[in-house]
Amino acid sequence: MKVRWYLVGLLLAAVAALGMGVSPTAGAQAGKVFVTAMHSDLKGVFCSLSASTGANNTVWNFYVWAGTHPSTNLLTVDSTPWTQQGDRWVATVKLLSGVKWSDGTDVTPEDIAFTFNAFATKLPSGRTLSLELGGGWASPIWDKFVGITVDSPTQITVALTDKPGLVEEATLFGWDIFQKNFWEPKFKEALASADPVATLAAVECAGEPTSGPFISKRWEPGAFAEVSANSGYSFRGRVFRQHETGGTTEILPANLGGLTRTSGDTSGPVQLEYTEGPFVDAVVYNIFGSQSAAALAVVSGDADYHFNPLGYGRATLDQLESTPGVKVVKNAANGLFYLSFNMRKSPFSYVAFRQAVACVIDKEFVANQLLGGLVIPAYSPVPPGNTFWHRTPTKEDLDKVCVGLSEQDRLARARQLLQDAGFQFDARGRLIKDPAGADITELELLHPNAAYDNNRNIFGLHIVDRLSKLGVPVRDVPAGFNNIVTLVFDEQDFDMWQLGWGLGVFPGYLEAFFHSRNTEPGGDSPQGGVCSALDNAATGCQDQYDQLADQFLAEQDATKAQEIARELQRLAIFEWFAYVPTHYVQQHDAFRADRITWQGLENLPILDGLQSAAGFREFVQKSQ
């Protein structure tokens, strides 16, 4: 399941130096240019495939590359239920005709078949190419893939070994489709090489055809990235209607047959109607050295919008809200910020140590006292805004992580947890031995620096302070975002780290984060799964989590899937302490309301706000 900042159905889910001397239009074509400020650079090479591979699967990469490829869902007119035929489960999908790539050729069933076959390719390791690519491409659904039959230019039949669950089907049909003509030679070359993943990740894909609203033009590292409007975008003019009863109506343009597609309850009056563009000629992403500098670009008028999924500090937020012409829209966020551990080694391989760390962290104190109430203490990997899947912690859960205890009581409880597990302290109260008698040397906590994200920086300082008071030898290592993801996901050289995830509505990430199959380099679970091999030998916890996660992915009943998802949350957070969720943020979208509008979408509650939309760029309208 891909884990990125995105919006299902283009908002229909609704549920480092300052500027680097770059001008606001950074060389864009003349016309209406939507200037976005970002405070982190892209990663990898300027290519849609590399942008989601391994540690390149960042929110910043996704924001620039979103919507480049169509999905089978987007191309679907209708589909049959899954039926069993012999030892296979099949579904027939009727496709739209007339959808074009930016080179003028049709998006074809052969493109879909090529894409599915490519990501399902088994490598010498026995794992699929999808899992080996890691990051946003890692998904076990391809282990069930049998093949695609192209029945006609507008129909395919998909065959799997088993009937897919809700999450698996959403992953399969939501997959990015790659153009066969452009990509097949590159996949063949990579698969014939000694290292297919590294070869694919290094592909420079200038001129790659897109079927999205924008075409990627260039990236100047440390300075800016630029995309230009796709004049041949097939879905331009698509009309969306949001109904007061929560449902949506989508009317495709005449070139796609004028088809009407609906979702949810559309019986109520139309609340909002908006039309898909793009309505701007280009989007420029100017890269700034800090969050505050990027926000200042909106204040000064050098940017139309600040892409910021991390939350603001009070001073920056007050400045934005008090600036004439600037509007800040607030929404529930669908992201998670967390602490985790390298559970492949001691002391992190011991559940008692991880619980002790969770115990000493006073999230309420940090959120309310140190950060002024701008963040929300977190106790689940599924944010509360995702109401169907979120699990509210019980009193027993909160007692396990010492909620409500004073600092001294937290430290005493954490020390007792460690001693009961066999850890040893010296006479001065310093932690010196693990239960096996191995020395505990100085540990490191990687966390984002204040310029990138002050919220996580403050949490990092608090965690190190409390652990030091517990007697744990530890030092904080504030670092740039791209440095942290490289150390954690590529090099896997770390002790503890703090990062965040932008999430989808279906929590397939409960498998991606913690299942043992994703613990290889490039996977989404660098810590080694929900518990270490040492703990697994004693309790079987890894096996239990893996089996339940597999059951969740394959579950076809929404209510049963909800029950499993909530149990997975309990196990990961309150039984084996694989993550210590630290906080959620309220999503703030800051933009120049005197220059741009989203056709009224800025006035509609949207999970994750305007920044969540893969299609935010084709809805924005800008005056000249």
Layout of helices and strands, plus pairs?
Elements: E1 33-38, H1 59-65, H2 72-75, E2 76-79, E3 83-85, E4 88-95, H3 109-119, H4 129-133, E5 145-152, E6 155-160, H5 166-173, H6 180-191, H7 196-201, E7 214-220, E8 224-229, E9 239-243, E10 248-251, E11 260-263, E12 270-275, E13 282-287, H8 291-300, E14 305-306, H9 314-321, E15 326-332, E16 335-341, H10 351-360, H11 363-370, E17 375-377, H12 395-400, H13 407-421, E18 424-425, E19 431-433, E20 443-448, H14 454-470, E21 474-479, H15 481-491, E22 496-502, H16 509-514, H17 533-539, H18 541-554, H19 558-575, E23 579-592, E24 596-597, H20 616-619, E25 621-622
Parallel strand pairs: 1-13, 1-14, 20-21, 20-22
Antiparallel strand pairs: 2-4, 3-4, 4-6, 5-6, 7-8, 8-13, 9-10, 9-12, 10-11, 14-23, 15-23, 16-22, 16-23, 17-23, 18-19, 24-25
Walk me through the structure.
With about 625 residues, the chain is α+β, with helices and mostly antiparallel strands. About 30% of the residues lie in helices and about 20% in strands. It is built from 20 helices and 25 strands. Strands 1, 7, 8, 13, 14, 15, 16, 17, 20, 21, 22 and 23 form a 12-stranded mixed β-sheet that branches. Strands 2, 3, 4, 5 and 6 form a 5-stranded antiparallel β-sheet that branches. A 4-stranded antiparallel β-sheet has the order 11-10-9-12, with no helix packed on it. β18 (about 425) and β19 form a beta hairpin. α3 (about 110-120) packs parallel to α6 (about 180-190), α10 runs antiparallel to α13 and α18 packs antiparallel against α19 (about 560-575). Mean pLDDT is about 90; it is low at about 1-30.
